[in-house]
Each structure stands twice: as structure tokens, then as C-alpha cells.
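pipeline/complex-builder :: batch 7 item 3
reading input block
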Amino acid sequence: MAAAAAEWDSGSEAGPTGDRPSAAASPVKGNAALPEESDAGASASGSSEAKVDDGNIQEAESSLREGLSLNYEEARALLGRLEYQRGNVEAALRVFDGIDLQAAIQRFQPSLSEKTLSKRSNKLRSDSSNSGSQHAASLVLEAIYLKSMSLQKLGKAMEAAKQCKSVLDAVESIFQCGIPGVMVEQKLQETVSKSVELLPELWKQAGAYQEALASYRRALLSQWNLDDECCTRIQKRFAVFLLYGGVEVSPPSLGSQTEGSFVPRNNLEEAILLLMILLKKWFLGKTHWDSSVMEHLTFALSLCGQTSVLAKHLEEVLPGIYPRTERWYSLALCYFAASHNEVALNLLKKSLNKNESPNDIMALLLAAKICSSSYPLASEGVDYARRAVKDAESSDGHLKSVALHVLGSCLAKKSRVASSDHQRSLLQTEALKSLNEAISLDRRNPELIFDMGIEYAEQRNLHAALKCAKEFIDATGGSVSKGWRLLSLVLSAQQRYSEAEVVTDAALDETAKWEQGPLLRIRAKLKIAQSLPMEAVEAYRTLLALVQAQRKAYGSIKNGAEEDEDKVSEFEVWQGLANLYSSLSYWRDAEICLQKAKALKTYSATTDHAEGNLHEVREKIQDALAAYFNALSMEVEHVPSKVSIGALLAKKGPKYLPVVRCFLSDALRLEPTNRMAWFYLGKVHKHDGRLADAADCFQAASMLEDSDPVESFRSL
Amino acid sequence: MPNDAPPQPIHSAKDALDALAGILGGALPAPVAATEDPAAALLNDPDLASAVTGRLRGAGSGAGNDTLCRWLYDAFRANVPELQLAVLRFVPTLAGVYMCRAVSRKPLAGFEAVLLALYAHAVAQRGAGQAETVSLPNLANPSPYHDAKVPPKGKPADLDVAVLSPPLEPHGTMRATRRARIVGAVLELYHGKLAHMPLSSKMDFCEFCVAWAGTQSKLDGADRPRLPDAAAAAGAEKWRRVPLPWELFQPVVRIVAHCLLGPTRSDELKAQAARAAECLYWRAAETVDAPALLATRSLVRLSQMVEEPIPEPSFPSGAIENMAELEAMKANILSTKN
């Protein structure tokens, strides 16, 4: 009977076909019986009364039951399915309403579960009564599943979910040991799979998110014998639900897990786990490629800053999925976000090769941006940025100001390492021009104003720099610390120390204790600049307390604050104190501070230089020189050491003057605003009798002295 | 916090509703006045919500003597969970207006008091010095959802631990440099309750996102931007672009992602969220901020993908082919019946 129905379904039903007598005769009878019912339903739904004629249903049902010797539930199931199939959802629903699932289950339950067990022990024995009741079960369960679908189509998600859940509950009570893979009829398996997949979606539609969550886990953690594609879809939807559901969920509790297994503790972990599993399935060829999985994973991992992990997954994607330039760009973004700038740039170089996509503006911008943070790469960055500007002009203006901005940054960076004055001033002018042009296109980007301010300050156009600094603070509402610091430093360069202090104090007011380090350092230096050593010591003491407290609080965290550029290191504080004490001729105190600094950082050019200073003031020239050279061997481009060596050698006699000049010009090439270097260079010229040159140097030194900030603008 | 004692302390949702009626000055919308469940009305009633958000957006709101801010503060501090949800419902407008105005450094003690109260709640909930972390799974270890060869000696492979949200330090005042962090943490709080939030609250949020980003969505036409908007001068207050450091950007993106891809069925919200995502993408492009670009680019791409439908029930094709035959038989039976 049920077997017959199945045959009528597809005619290709595999498995142990029922060998009941009615089966052979059924197709005709079935066909004859069914249309009558479908007519009943069709006429009902089509009639003006829009009411199912119950008499018709019953009539059809009874004729089916007689014709196919089906029971009540099975007959209703068949009728309902037909209605559903014809799109008469309401009619189908009315037919399905008559089915008592519980009664049906109780009938199937003993026979099926017993047979399941007996099958396990005796696989070869074919059992027709088992397959018969499986067909019956399949029919009824499908009916309830279709009932659920019908309800969903009528917008009754909650009821639909309850019906769908009852299908799964029924399956679980029939197959108490999970669904065995080999012996379940195909149709039944299909109904089970579809219901498993449907249920969480229905709960979601009904707004019952906790139930949705539970049903996702039930779907994935129980034995439903789902095929790979179905399981993949459920995993993906679950991951999406976890990522974006906005539902606070409790983690899965699994006491039975083996040791060392990963049990997610929150939504995001569970979502990432599922997405990674999905990707792996694809690598293993178990599912088709789904680009949304990678996008979801990208979203999740970039939110928690794990772009290097993301890069690994992107690299594992087999060729042929992403165009290679796109893959390179994505990877470059990942590596740049993870501060692997060199790797990122190499990938972009491949992508921007003339044979690939040399005009990809996003890649050009990224490449230029990476270059803008490094002196040696600045020149290369200028090239990328220029190409980006050109691109932006030809395509859309949206990104032109961005391109001009990075171009300005790269030019400015390049100007710092220019080999000649002439080239430097050219680059500086050009940098300002680009930044100006960028601002004229986009007046609302405070970052642009800030970079402009820095550039003006570096070129000692302090008036303009001051204007930019104020504008930046206005545009950001004083919420960005570096804006306050720029303003304070510019004021200090204008020798307006008390105003700089007012600004620093205002900034301290707007800054939480924990982030006050750089401001306190500026305050200490402002005190020194005003020749208030005792207050400076006090300021340093406050700073030291803060830094040490931070070390205690964050010391244990691995990826903690130490690399944070906005934090002052304890080393720096001792170093500053050492310099302060030595300027006050408190040699012993200075030495103690230096020892402390050395204990924190053994090899440091700054410490060696300070040590040299100490020797020098105590007339231990050889020791001082040795210390300075040590500093240079630590850091080849350590400007203060070069200047000190120059100054020291100059005192040793005329035969050293060429060497001295060498050191000093070298220092000036690296840091053209170093007034001490200009001063000593002037002395060399004077000694050599080049008075005009000497005068120029002295003038430069004096002008720089009048515009020297308490701290280099580059520290911002 | 406002200093003078509140007119009536708020202990329950009913108190809150009564107090709100006094503040809004007019009669409450009829369904709200008659409600059995004042907390649900406060959370969900659209008319009441638009009255409150209208006041929050109004000129001069958020000052130290703003009674509505006072109400939000008291209602949240009453420690009734349902009432707290009703307050959180207004976080988008509160944060939106506050951030836009804070840049101009107007006195906003009322807004700040509410935000700080919410922040303090977030700090207490999280625990002092606790970061919100995520352990990244390593597929070499088995998990509930997959099997793996159990590593030799049963030693699990190491996990990377990522910080989703750094520890929250207690803040008693709104310092400018911590503003983004505080508002960001309040948005994280809102994010945790998104499933309870009504649609209009999320719509408000997406609207403010677009304003915060200060960029133009390409959907709006590329030529309109950049020039100062003449309409702004005439009409209502123009919500302006605000600094979006990562600590604010990240929770914003998470909420937008929910609006875009969460289990909502509102196309209107999805469209608005897609717009917000795009604006945020262009904002990230402005500074070539790699993590922000990655996250928002994915959102924009996902917004353009079509969601896979739930499979329909399949019926054996044989039966469909038989349809004509069935129809014929049906006609046959009908005629015999008649």
C-alpha cells in the first residue's frame, strides 16, 4: 500500500519494494482515486465560498482508503500533498489538519525501532513489513512537513515551526538511535533533511531566536544522516545567525566531548568555527564554492583584528576562484592590517605590474599608503600616488582627494631624506601643494588638516601650522590627542611656553589618566625649556608613576600596550631624567637614571649618547668619544651622536676639521633642523676662514633656535 | 548628573511611563495610556518613540537641565531590565545626536550623564579590566561540529586569542579623547540587545551612520557631494561627520551588519543598512584603513548577494508529468458523478 504510493510518486523508488498484492495494481487505482480528491480541493479553493467542502474530502479519503487500503492518516497525507503540489495551500492545510501525528507515531514506533535493532544485527535480511511501515511513516511525516510549509506560506511562522518540530520529535522517537544511513527510505530521509533545515528558519521568522538557536544546534549535533550540501547550508545559515543575529546565546554545553576539543564560548567563536569548517569542506571537495562564506569570515576576523589568520585562509583558496589581482589586493589588506608592510607591498607590486592591473586605484592607494610610513619607500610611494591621482581624475573624483593626500604624505616623507637642500625644498613645496589641493577637494577630513599642519611645522611655517592645529582640534572636537600635542609643540616652537602649558593642561583635562603619558612628557620638557628644573623633575616623577603603574597593569598581557605609539616607555622617562640631571650637573643622579634606563634597554643609541655626554662634561674625552661611536654603531643614523662627535673632534685641532665637517653635514642631511649641527658647522667654517658660510650657518642656527619645539614634530 | 532631586523616583515601568507623560507634556498616545504592559509600550510603541526621538533631536536637547535625559537616566538606573531595554532603544538617537554635537563642543551634560550611566553598566557587566576576547578555533582540534584526528598525546593545538573589545576603564566624566570609546562601549551594549530592539530604532541608527561617515553612497549619485548643502541651512539641524576611530567604528559596523544580514525581514532596513555600509566603506577608504576596509567591503559585497532560499519540497517528476492524465481522469469522474 504505502509502497504502492511510493511507486506512484516516482516510479523509480529504490530499496526493498513491497511485494504486497495491492502494489501491482495500485497505479491505476491510485490515479483514479486521487484526482477526485484533488478536484474536491480545487473546487473548494476555487469556489466563491472559499471553503473546503468537507464532504468532498471525506468522500475522496474514503475512496482512497478503500482503493489502496490506506489508513486514515495515509490517505489524508496523499490528498494533502496533491493539494500542496497544485499550490492550494489552504486546502492542503485543511486536509492535513485531520492527521493525528501522535497516533501515527505510536503505530510506527514499536515496529520500526525493533526492526532497526534487528537490522543492525542481521543486515542481509530484508524485511518487508519494516519497509512497509517506513513508507507509511514517510507519508505521514511528509504530510506534517508539508503542513508546516503551508503554514509558513500563510505567514503563520510560529505554528509552522511547531509542526515542523513535531516532525523531528517524531523522527527522534521512532529512530531512537539516530537515523541509520543505509536502510532508510529515500523519501523519508528527504523529509527529515528538509524539516531539519526548515525548522530554524521558521523559528527565526517567528522571532523565537532562542528556539532557532537550539534547533540549529539540534540539526548539526544530532544524527540526521544529512547529506553534505544540506549540512553545509545549515552550517552557513547558523554561522550567519550567530554573527548577525544580535542574540545573546549560551555556548553549547557538551560534557561528552573528548579532551582537547574546542568548545566555542560565544557567538563569534562558534560562527568562526563553522565558517572555517565550511571552508575546509570546500577544500576537501565536499561542497561547492560559496563566496559568501569567505566574506563572512573576512568580516568576523577583521573585526577582531585577526587579519593574519584571515590571510592564511585566503591563501588556501584554490586558484580559479578569485582573479589573482583581487586575491593579491585582499591579501595585501590583511598583511598591512597585521603590520606586515613588506609582504603587503610585495603583493601589491605583483598586482600593479603593467601586465596585471596597473591602474587599480585601490591597490595604488594602498601601496602608496604603505610607502608613506617609511623613509626608504617614500620615493616609490610618490610614484604609486601619482598614478592613483591620474586614475582618480579619469574615473571618478571620489578618491582624488585621498590620492592627493597620500601623495602629499609620501612627498613629505621623501623630502626628509632628500640628498640636497634644493631637492628638499622642491619636494616640500610639492607636498604642500598636493595637500592643499586635497583639502580643496575635501574640506571635511581632519586627517588632511593635521598632516598639513605637520608639514608646515616641519618647514617652520609656524603661523600656518598653528592655524592647522587649531582647525584640527575644532574639527575633531578635541577628541584626538595628537591634535593637542601638535598645538602645544607649535606653541613651544614659537617660544610661547606658557600658552603651550595651558594647552597641555587643557589636553590633560580631556584625557583619561592612562593615556596622559605623552602629554606629561611634553609638560616636563616645557618646564625644562622655561628653566624650571625642579618642576620638570616633578613632572617626570608623575610620568614615571604613571608608566610604572601601566607596566604593572598591562605587563601580563601579551599584545598589550607596549607597542602602542601613544604610550611613553619607562626607558624614555629615565633617559629624559638623566638628560635633565646632567644639564643641572647632578652627575650622580644622572648616572643612576642612566643605569635604570640601561637596565630596561641594554642597547640603545640614546643611552650611549647620554653616557657620552656625561663623560664629556667631566672632560673624559676619550670615553665620551667611545660612547658616541658606540651609539653610532647601534644606530647608524643617530643624529645627536654625529653632532656630538663633530663638536668633540672640532676641539681636538684643525687637522680633524674635514672629518668634523663630514659628520656635521651628514647630521644635517638627516635632520636639517638640527640647530646644534648648524652651529658647529658655522664654527668649522669660521675656523677655516669661510666667513660668509659661517655667518649663514650661525644665522640658520639662530633662526632654528627661535623655532625649536620642545619635542620633534616627528614624534607625533 | 542633574543635581536636584527627581520629582518622582522611578521604580517600575509604570512610574517611568507616568513620568514620561509629564515630560512630553501632552497626553500619551491612546494605546500606550491604556496599556497593560508599560515596559513593552515604552520599547515598542512607534508614536511614543517618535515623540521621544523628536525631543532628543530637537534644538537645545541634551543640556544639563534636559528633563528627558533626566528621565532616561532615572529609568535606566531603576534597574528594571525591561525598562533598561526601553532606554537602550533610544541609544541610536542619543549617541547619534550627541556625537554630532559634541564635535562642536556644546554643553551636553544631559546626554553625557545618560551615556556615562550606560557605560558604567557596561563596565559592571564586563567586570573591571576584562577584555572581551575570542579564541580562534584551530581545526586540528576536534569540535562539536567536526571531527579531527586527535593529536598525539592528546595535546590540543594552540589557539590564537583575539581581543574583540579591550578592557573598559571606569570613567566618571566624559573626556573628549575617551568619547569615542565610551560611546563605542554603549553601542556594544546596544549590540548585545539588538534582538529586542524595534525596527525604528535600528533605522535611526543606520541614518546616523550615514551622517557620521560623512561620505556619499554611490547610490545617491556621485556628483551631489562635497558642496555645502544649501538645504541644511534652511531645514533641520544637519547631522555632521564625526571622528570614527576603530573603537567606535567597530561597534558601528557590527550593528550595521546586524541590520543588513540579521534575521529581519524589513527590506527598508536592509536598504538603509546597505547604504550605511557603503558610506562606511568610503569612509574607510579615505584613510586607507585596512581592517575597516576589509570589514566594510565584505558587508557591501554581502549586501549584493542573494540569500539562498530554503529548499522547497520536491515532488517526483513522474507525478507532474502525469498531471494531464490526472486532469483527464478528474474530468471523467466529475462527469460520472453528475
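note: Chain B touches chain A through 97 residues (CB under 8 Å).
queue -> next item
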